[in-house]
User: Fold this.
Amino acid sequence: APTPNPTPGPTTGEPSAAVPTAVPADLCAGTWADGEEKVVLSNNYDSISGRAWKSTVVPVIPGFDGTGQAAMMYYSAPYAQQPAIRQGVSMTILNNCIRAGMRFQVTWKVKLLDGADDTQGYPCSLNGSCPTARFRIRQEDSTGKILCNGWYGVSRTDTNWDVDGWNFKSETFTIPSGCTGNTWRWFLLDLHNGQNFSPFTTKMIVDDTKIVLLDD
Assistant:
């Protein structure tokens, strides 16, 4: 499993400082059918609740649409890196197709609840302490030299927040320019509550997580 002390990367919660690079147009040819949405991760949490990273993750019923289930995260101890619901991206697609400069769209649905009374929503500040996503990634070349390694934040674009209801998140992420190789050691999506709140302050419920490769 990834160690909690990687070499420094961009600050968690900040857009990754990547400059798009030229990528062969046919690099992903055959990975998806023509016209198909280029999904690299999809989770509705009905059969899996996501892995806990420095946290506890449990299923909750119902999910966003009133059926099925969602995943709830809370944590009981402080950590330097914010606890999260962690999910792995397909290594087959990553190694075959994903290179520096490509862009992902990350969408998910989320509620932030009061840790002492989870019937109540917990307030947060837009593009500050509201839930967001980050990627824990590491890539090495054939000699073992580290090309990129760290936690990399998405581009946050919150325009409103419903304290008491579900919120739809749509954020973008550009593969860092330093990831110049084609073999990924780690590529993990972390969904976290946006601020390193004290333990038991909040509970976060998430549903319908999807990562899609953008054409541009």
